[in-house]
From TrEMBL:
Nitroreductase domain: residues covered: 8-50, 84-149
Protein name (Swiss-Prot/TrEMBL): Nitroreductase
PANTHER family for this protein: NAD(P)H NITROREDUCTASE YDGI-RELATED, NADH DEHYDROGENASE_NAD(P)H NITROREDUCTASE XCC3605-RELATED
Keywords attached to this entry: Oxidoreductase
Keyword hit for Oxidoreductase: yes
Family of this protein: Belongs to the nitroreductase family.
Source organism phylogeny: Bacteria, Bacillati, Actinomycetota, Actinomycetes, Actinomycetales
Sample GO molecular function, one term: oxidoreductase activity
Organism: Varibaculum cambriense
Organism superkingdom: Bacteria
Gene3D superfamilies given in the database record: NADH Oxidase
């Protein structure tokens, strides 16, 4: 059996970031560029991002929006708001969240290749970001991501369920 890529196996989501690290505009753009290459239903690519780098106006708004269980995000060098458009297909399914998830996964893997870390989260003030960035239906402020470097020496062994537990035939309700 082929081994899983070291990038996939090694990727992890820190709950702590180095407050002294600064991501560059070029690095942020490279991460966002990775999203362009994600698959989407009917190639619609119905996703958008509001990136913020520490010190710019987008970052300040996004940082103010961090809420709830996500206060660990406040030291990240960059924040990205992830937006999708609700678009039910002719089958009645909304592929927006699924497609956005593919784009975000591409960004997560690109950050890992670059020696950075990203962590998606969902606890933030959607009203605030919708108002400031003028996001209204059918557009949805779905998640945010942190981007930066974990503090030196901070690593974590990832725990994953065994493959057998992910197969429906083995699922116990």
């Amino acid at each position: 059996m082929t081994e899983i890529s070291k990038i996939i196996r090694g990727r992890w989501s820190p709950r702590e970031y180095d407050p002294d690290f600064s991501i560059s505009c070029e690095e942020m753009n490279q991460i966002l560029e990775a999203a362009r290459w994600a698959p989407s239903a009917m190639n619609t690519q119905e996703w958008w991002f509001v990136p913020g780098i520490r010190g710019d106006k987008n970052y300040e708004v996004l940082r103010r929006a961090v809420a709830g269980f996500s206060d660990w995000a406040l030291d990240a060098s960059g924040l990205i708001l992830n937006i999708h458009q609700e678009y039910p297909s002719r089958h009645g399914l909304d592929f927006g969240p699924y497609d956005l998830g593919s784009a975000v996964q591409n960004m997560l893997l690109q950050a890992e290749v670059m020696g950075l870390h990203m962590r998606p989260f969902a606890t933030f003030d959607r009203e605030l970001v919708s108002q400031v960035f003028q996001i209204a239906p059918p557009y949805v402020s779905f998640t945010m991501c942190t981007v930066g470097k974990a503090p030196a020496g901070l690593t974590k062994e990832r725990e994953r369920k065994p493959l057998e537990q992910l197969l429906w035939e083995n699922h116990q309700a």
